[in-house]
Task: structure prediction
Amino acid sequence: MSQQWFQQQIAPDGIKEDGCHPDEARALEDYCNPKIDASEAAKAIVSRLIELLGAMQDLPKPDLKGREIATHGPLWQKLPGFGHHGADEHNQSFWRERLTTATRKGEDRAEMRAAHVRKANVEARLVVAGVAGVPLDWGYECIADALERHDAVVDFEVPAAAEWLSIAGDQLFAGVRTGIESWALGSLRDFGREDPVMAMERWLFWEQRMEELEEQIKVEVGMTKSVHQLMKALREGSN
Result:
């Protein structure tokens, strides 16, 4: 693809419907050349989309006189329904079943893992950015499922939990300091930690489990960062 082709895809007048943002076009061009890999290109484009969602939330309240529109609070606040639509598309309770079916069909496990981890990455970034109504509970659910279940799909769930902890660690650990309650923590799991309150005891248990499981899968999934050390740093930094 020529430089001219990429220039034609950009919306010079700022109207996104007839083109894309220059940063997005540049990310795609760098990937195709190639100057960056697929992961770096995806991150660059997702970053622009998250900025767009944030800008949409900040839009002024429209004049809705004479129009019956059911809203919960300001029309654009948290982009009502966006996060929940995403949850419907990637329901936590169904993905294991899909994985089993895909494995029987001989589909690429590594490719499915990458998609699962990428989902966690995007959700965590949305929480940190405070857009789209994605709740922190999703992070607690992801981590608890990875570290508190004996039947966890370790090569999928531990890297996904690592994404949440790496990106939204400050927000997650803040729940320890405040004793936050989350429906995601109240579910019965194998290690008997179905208390919905986030506590230091639980965080310490997560640290220990993450250290054990990181060692178990680091070669298979190519984990290079030490997430349990990050968790320890967050804990010690709060003292």
Remarks:
- The CA atoms of residues 21 and 123 lie 22 Å apart.
- The chain is about 60% helix and 0% strand.
